C-alpha cells in the first residue's frame, strides 16, 4: 500500500483533539487540540513532532470553524507539516457509539453515516459532536477517504449472556437495551501492545485491561476478543470514576425520586457529574489531589482511593473467573499509567492469581512491574495512534477486496 498521511479527529461537544500520522510506520508528525468551541474565545494547542508545544486564542464558533483553523495551521508554510491539505489521504474519526450495527471500523459512505445518526439516541451526548466532525471533514476534505472507528466495536464480540441485562427481553428487541461497553479502541490497542511485547499471538492470551482515568473501565480480553467489560448501556456503569458513580443498586434513583422528588435531569447530573471521587470527597475528582489530601490525613479522600481500588480488584477477580485463567493484567489511562500507589492497592491480595508487583519497577512506571507468573504491565494508551492504525487496516482490506474483484472479472 502506498504511503499515506492520515488526519485523526476526536470530536467532543466543545473540543477537537487531532493528530497527523504518516504511514506505513504510523509516525505521528503533529498533534493538538481546539478547546472551548462555541465560546467567545477558544484555545488552540499545537505541537509538531520533536518541537515545543504552543498555544493561542482563536475564534471557533462551531466544529467547522475549529477544523478550518486546524487545517490552516497544518498547511502553514512556516509552522505546518503539510504543503497543502490535499496531502491528507484519509481522515479517521472517533465515533463513540456504533450500536449493534458496527463490529469493526468502516469507511464512511451515505449508508454508514445514516447508521451513525441512528445511534444518537444511544449516545445523545457523544455521537452528535462526532457527527459534526464528520460533516465538517466532508466539507473541508471531500477528496480524502473518511473512516469511522467505534468505541463500542471491540466489545461486539461479547456473547448474549455477557451483554444482556435481566430485564424484559422486549426491551432489548425494541429499544436495544444491552451492555455495549466503551473505551474499546484503547482496550484493543494495549492488548495488541502486550502481544508484541511478550511475542505471543493475542489469540493465545487471557488478559484483563484496566483503562483507568477520569472515565474508567475494565475489559476481559480472551484470545483477542472482548468477552466482558465493566461499562454497560452507558459509560456510567462499572468502576468508581472521577464524577460517575459506577455500579449501584438501581433502586436508589427510584428511592430518591420518592423521598426527594428528584427529576430525571437532576438524577442524571448527580450520577454522572456529582458522584464518584467528586461525590465521596466533597468536590475533588483529580486523583493527584485526592492522593495528596489522603496523605495529609483526610479520611474521605483515603476512602475514595480504597473504594476505587476495591472495585477494580473485584472486576479483576471476576474476569479471571470468567476466562478460566489469566496471563496478564494491563494498566493504562491517566491513573493506570501514572499512579504506582493505586496499582499497588489494586494488586494487593491477588497473589492467588499469580500477581505480585515488583515495588521498584512499579514506582518507576516500568513496562512490566510484576515478579510472579502472571505478568502485570503499564502501557500508555494512544487512541489517536490506534485510530490511525485502524484507518490503514480498513483501507488495506478495501484495496485487497477491490483487487480480488478485478481479478475475478
TL;DR?
The protein is built from 15 helices and 13 strands. The protein has 409 residues and is an alpha/beta fold.
Overall 3D geometry?
Answer: globular
**Largest sheet report:** 8 strands, mixed
H/E element string?
Answer: EEEEEHEEHHEHHHEEEHHHHHEHHHEH
Overall pLDDT? 95
Give structural notes.
The protein is of the alpha/beta class. It folds into two domains: 5-150, ATPase, nucleotide binding domain (Nucleotidyltransferase, domain 5), CATH 3.30.420; 199-378, ATPase, nucleotide binding domain (Nucleotidyltransferase, domain 5). Helix content is 41%, strand content 19%. The strands form two sheets. Strands 5-4-3-2-1-6-8-7 form an eight-stranded mixed β-sheet, sandwiched between helices. It has a five-stranded mixed β-sheet with strand order 11-10-9-12-13, with helices on both faces. The chain is globular. The model has no long low-confidence stretch (mean pLDDT 95).
Supply the key terms:
409 residues; alpha/beta; Nucleotidyltransferase, domain 5; 2 domains; 5-stranded mixed β-sheet
Topology readout:
Blueprint: E1 5-11, E2 15-22, E3 27-35, E4 42-48, E5 54-58, H1 63-74, E6 90-95, E7 106-107, H2 110-118, H3 127-140, E8 145-150, H4 160-163, H5 169-175, H6 184-198, E9 206-212, E10 216-222, E11 225-229, H7 251-260, H8 264-273, H9 276-281, H10 287-295, H11 299-323, E12 328-332, H12 333-338, H13 340-347, H14 359-363, E13 375-378, H15 383-408
Parallel strand pairs: 1-6, 6-8, 9-12, 12-13
Antiparallel strand pairs: 1-2, 2-3, 3-4, 4-5, 7-8, 9-10, 10-11
Amino acid at each position: 500500500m502506498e504511503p499515506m498521511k492520515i488526519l485523526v479527529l476526536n470530536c467532543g461537544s466543545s473540543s477537537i483533539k487531532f493528530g497527523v500520522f504518516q504511514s506505513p510506520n504510523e509516525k505521528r508528525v503533529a498533534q493538538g487540540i481546539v478547546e472551548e468551541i462555541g465560546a467567545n474565545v477558544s484555545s488552540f494547542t499545537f505541537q509538531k513532532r520533536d518541537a515545543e508545544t504552543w498555544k493561542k486564542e482563536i475564534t471557533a464558533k462551531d466544529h467547522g470553524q475549529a477544523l478550518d483553523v486546524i487545517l490552516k495551521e497544518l498547511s502553514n508554510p512556516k509552522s505546518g507539516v503539510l504543503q497543502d491539505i490535499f496531502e491528507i489521504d484519509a481522515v479517521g474519526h472517533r465515533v463513540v457509539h456504533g450500536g449493534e450495527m458496527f463490529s469493526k471500523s468502516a469507511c464512511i459512505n451515505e449508508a454508514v453515516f445514516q447508521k451513525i445518526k441512528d445511534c444518537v439516541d444511544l449516545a445523545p451526548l457523544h455521537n452528535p459532536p462526532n457527527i459534526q466532525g464528520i460533516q465538517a471533514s466532508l466539507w473541508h476534505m471531500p477528496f480524502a477517504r473518511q473512516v469511522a472507528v467505534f468505541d463500542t466495536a471491540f466489545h461486539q464480540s461479547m456473547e448474549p449472556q455477557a451483554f444482556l441485562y435481566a430485564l424484559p427481553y422486549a426491551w432489548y428487541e425494541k429499544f436495544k437495551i444491552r451492555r455495549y461497553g466503551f473505551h474499546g479502541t484503547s482496550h484493543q490497542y494495549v492488548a495488541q501492545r502486550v502481544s508484541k511485547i511478550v511475542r505471543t499471538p493475542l489469540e493465545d492470551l487471557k488478559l484483563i485491561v484496566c483503562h483507568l482515568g477520569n472515565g474508567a473501565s475494565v475489559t476481559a480480553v480472551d484470545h483477542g476478543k472482548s468477552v466482558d467489560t465493566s461499562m454497560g448501556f452507558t459509560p456510567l456503569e462499572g468502576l468508581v470514576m472521577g464524577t460517575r458513580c459506577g455500579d449501584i443498586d438501581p433502586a436508589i434513583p427510584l428511592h430518591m425520586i420518592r423521598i426527594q422528588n428528584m427529576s430525571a435531569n437532576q438524577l442524571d447530573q448527580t450520577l454522572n457529574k456529582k458522584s464518584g471521587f467528586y461525590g465521596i470527597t466533597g468536590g475533588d475528582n483529580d486523583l493527584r489531589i485526592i492522593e495528596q489530601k489522603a496523605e495529609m490525613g483526610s479520611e474521605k479522600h483515603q476512602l475514595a482511593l480504597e473504594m476505587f481500588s476495591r472495585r477494580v480488584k473485584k472486576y479483576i477477580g471476576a474476569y479471571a473467573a470468567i476466562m478460566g485463567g489469566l496471563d496478564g493484567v494491563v494498566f493504562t489511562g491517566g491513573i493506570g499509567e501514572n499512579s504506582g500507589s493505586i496499582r499497588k492497592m489494586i494488586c494487593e491480595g491477588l497473589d492467588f492469581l499469580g500477581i505480585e508487583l515488583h515495588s521498584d519497577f512499579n514506582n518507576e512506571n516500568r513496562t512490566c512491574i510484576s515478579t510472579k507468573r502472571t505478568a502485570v504491565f503499564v502501557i500508555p494508551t494512544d487512541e489517536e495512534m490506534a485510530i490511525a492504525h485502524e484507518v490503514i487496516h480498513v483501507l488495506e482490506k478495501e484495496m485487497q477486496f477491490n483487487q480480488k474483484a478485478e481479478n475475478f472479472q
